[in-house]
Amino acid sequence: MPITAAFDLHAHVTEHTLAPLDFLAGYLTNPHGDQAATSHRAFKAAQDIFEGRLDPRCAAVFFPMLTLGNDRTDEDPLRTLHAYAKSHVDKGSVYDVSIFNAQQFLDVEKLGQVVLVYGNGDDEVAERLADELAERLWASRDRLVGTYPSLDPCLDRIEAEDLTLVLGDQGDRVAGGGPGDSTFILNRLMERNFGKPAILPIYAPEEVEKCKAAGEGAEIELTFGGRYSTASPPVTARGRVVAVGSDTPVIYDGPSDGGTKTYLESWAVFQFGEIRILLTSQPYSYIDPAYFRSVGVDPKAMKLIVVRSGYHYSLNFASVGECITIDTPGITSYDIGRLPWNTARPFYPIDKIDFAPRRYLRSPQARTHERW
Ligand SMILES: [Zn+2]
């Protein structure tokens, strides 16, 4: 029975992951827009093996390096690399290619980049292409480190022009492990007396309960945010409880994960001036405008929307406004040299090491050997 799987492009993949699998497909897009297509590749491979059309020959190259910010697949350098890989798949010289850019906050052994190529009955062509793609990825190593714009010029633009900006809080990305309660952007808005319609989400379970106890329409003083994130202190404000709710459905507009249904567990919208705070009992990434619409806030009526995501929101918010991920402090900022690494190092770019790839070839017998 063939065993195939589909993984996120940020997966931590090792020889140990590959040995039991006849085939593994990774997302080819970041921001992720091909979740369903990746599952389809994995299913089709199982079907092709089962029906005798595919004899998968796996060639993987691993090397200790991280991408840090300039790693969207719709921009260079990864765009060109993926296009080159795709040209080989399209012409049939190999069956499938995945390039895994590991999630950057994993202090684990063998952390790094993975190029994974499957030949169809041909080891050599898969090996050659895996080596070539790995060398190209390594050659781009310094271009894969990005820098992000800062907050104030974005706020200046909103105040000067009639536009909507959707700002990704790079330092507090919930899917990256951020707590979702950073007040860094909010404190700056308050210092500036920001007066345009804005919505910001804050993970604040106790304050949701206070809003619910006070009831919709009540005027109360709240102190919230900055409990888990140490980037900026909590905020105290007097305002109005606009709306409260529980188990509210959110159905993503997409295109990323379009149609996905999730729920906001317990929440309140608290407003002072033009600033609306979406207080929630759980942290969320807010990768889709539906999160705000579901609590009664029309995203298109806002001039500033803050989300706790660095990439994925930008596909789904493109119809609402200009999406900019900004340089903010916090545990998910790419300033990873400050982290107390114990296991994963050395890796580039923190350690200026030489290219030292590990190669893995999985013979058709490998699975049997691994298991028995
Ligand atoms: Zn991912």
SSE diagram, text form:
Elements: E1 4-7, H1 15-18, E2 23-26, H2 35-50, E3 56-63, H3 78-90, E4 96-101, E5 113-120, H4 123-139, H5 151-160, E6 165-169, H6 184-191, E7 198-203, H7 205-214, E8 219-224, E9 235-251, E10 261-272, E11 275-280, H8 290-293, E12 304-307, H9 313-316, E13 322-326, E14 358-362, H10 366-371
Parallel strand pairs: 1-2, 6-12, 6-13, 7-11, 7-12
Antiparallel strand pairs: 3-5, 3-14, 4-5, 8-9, 9-10, 10-11
The site of zinc ion has 4 residues, from loops.
Looking at this protein, list some descriptive labels:
372 residues, alpha/beta, 2 domains, eight-stranded mixed β-sheet, four-stranded antiparallel β-sheet, 10 helices
Shape descriptor: elongated
Helix amount:
10-25%
Largest sheet: 8 strands, mixed
- In the residues, how many domains can be counted? 2
Please list the strands of the largest sheet in the order they lie side by side.
Answer: 8-9-10-11-7-12-6-13
The termini sit apart by: 16 Å
**Oligomer kind:** single chain
Quick check: average pLDDT?
95
* Tally of DSSP β-strands: 14
Quickly count the helices: 10
Strand and helix order:
EHEHEHEEHHEHEHEEEEHEHEEH
Q: What share of the residues does DSSP label as strand, in percent?
A: 25-35%
Unreliable stretches covering 5 or more consecutive residues: 368-372
Helix/strand-derived category reads: alpha/beta
Ligand roster: zinc ion
Output the radius of gyration. Answer: 23 Å
